Amino acid sequence: MTTLTYDDNNIFAKILAGAIPSHNVYEDDKTLAFMDVMPQAKGHVLVVPKQKAVDLSQLTPDYAQAVLMTAQKVMQAQRQVFEREGIVQMQLNGAQAGQTVFHYHMHLIPASLHELGKHGAQLADRDELANLANALKAAIAD
Ligand code: AMP
């Protein structure tokens, strides 16, 4: 059973605190979007709220709204950069559902559901992630 007690040492809390590096795509006062380092498809982005929420049940409406607004920006940029319409939006609640990082996050994956690889399985090339993050960042700023 997943505990709903927020662990301040989880990896996304460290990213939000700037304690470990991330390839950021977009940031505002309530959210951060960055490249998934072990992507399920090229261009896999995670959107996280700047709120200590383990999963969807703990996300307050203001942060839920902010996550969705950021997700729309990111998705639009993914469509532009990857010239594809299909983006999978995924979000796992609880270890039983496959959640591995216990800070709420929305996955945005330029892929079809049937071609998704395993997430969290293989580290992507760091330079490629940096290039993809820059391309998405530029598309959002357009
Ligand atoms: P979930 O299984 O839904 O909790 O997804 C966690 C995601 O976080 C996986 O897709 C991992 O590849 C990703 N991930 C883990 N560590 C990092 C990290 N340091 N930076 C970016 N993504 C990460």
Biggest sheet, strands in spatial order? 1-2-3-5-4
Count of discrete domains: 1
Number of helices: 3
CATH level 4 superfamily: HIT-like
**Silhouette:** globular
Beta-strand content: 5-15%
Kindly report the CATH topology.
Answer: HIT family, subunit A
Q: How would you describe the oligomerization state of the chains in this entry?
A: single chain
Description:
With 142 residues, the protein is of the alpha+beta class. The chain contains 3 helices and 5 strands, in the order αβββαββα. A 5-stranded antiparallel beta sheet has the order 1-2-3-5-4. Strand 1 (24-27) and strand 2 (31-35) form a beta hairpin. The longest helix is centred in the middle third of the chain and has 22 residues, at 61-82. It is globular, with a radius of gyration of 14 Å. The termini are far apart. The mean pLDDT is 95. Adenosine monophosphate (AMP) binds next to loops. Adenosine monophosphate binds next to loops.
